[in-house]
Design the sequence.
């Protein structure tokens, strides 16, 4: 299990513990759970998924990965409060090597969650990121830098007028979807959803 200390340095100044576990089994079954425990408030936010993955044709480029489509079920601390505590989920994941080798990557990931009892309520999110890792940046340090953009457009939100692209951009940019992270060995500096945080991988 991966564990991480997470300290919000923007407003709350609160220490949290992040936990993540991923278990895979043939044929391409994946169980994943992520949790965030706030040591001050005692709140526990979590997401758990069980999916069957369908892997596309392998990419010959070093660092690229074939497209992966996942279908399954999901629950979370938010979903558990709805009329149906388990939702249907579908996901897509793809990585492209921007330069020769695996160190500079463009990755795209998206998912959609559907409440079986109220299928008109959809939760749709996507992330696009570019990352570069410098192994042996110094004698004792590896460095990884990533920048990205989060997109989410739940169907229950009020939609502005215009084309699909115009509505999407109007929804996104007012929420500052761009994010950044810089990770040096175990330490990390992050900016996401208007919040700065420091992390330490245990």
Sequence:
């Amino acid at each position: 299990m991966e564990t991480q200390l997470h300290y919000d340095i923007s407003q709350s100044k609160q220490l949290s513990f992040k936990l993540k576990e991923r278990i895979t089994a043939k044929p391409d079954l994946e169980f994943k759970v992520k949790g965030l425990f706030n040591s001050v408030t005692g709140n526990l936010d979590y997401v758990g998924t069980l999916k069957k993955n369908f892997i596309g044709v392998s990419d010959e480029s070093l660092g690229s990965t074939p497209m992966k489509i996942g279908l399954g079920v999901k629950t979370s601390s938010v979903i558990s409060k709805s009329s149906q505590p388990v939702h249907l989920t579908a996901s897509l994941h793809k990585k492209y090597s921007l330069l020769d080798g695996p160190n500079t990557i463009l990755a795209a990931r998206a998912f959609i969650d559907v409440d079986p009892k109220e299928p008109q309520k959809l939760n749709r999110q996507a992330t696009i990121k570019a990352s570069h890792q410098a192994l042996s940046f110094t004698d004792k340090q590896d460095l990884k830098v990533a920048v990205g953009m989060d997109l989410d457009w739940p169907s229950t939100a009020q939609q502005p007028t215009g084309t699909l692209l115009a509505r999407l951009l109007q929804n996104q940019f007012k929420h500052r979807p761009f994010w950044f992270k810089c990770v040096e060995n175990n330490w990390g500096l992050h900016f996401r959803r208007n919040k700065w945080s420091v992390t330490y991988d245990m």
Remarks:
- Residues 155-160 have pLDDT under 50 and may be disordered.
- The helical segments are 164-173.
- The CA atoms of residues 121 and 156 lie 6 Å apart.
- The longest helix spans residues 164-173.
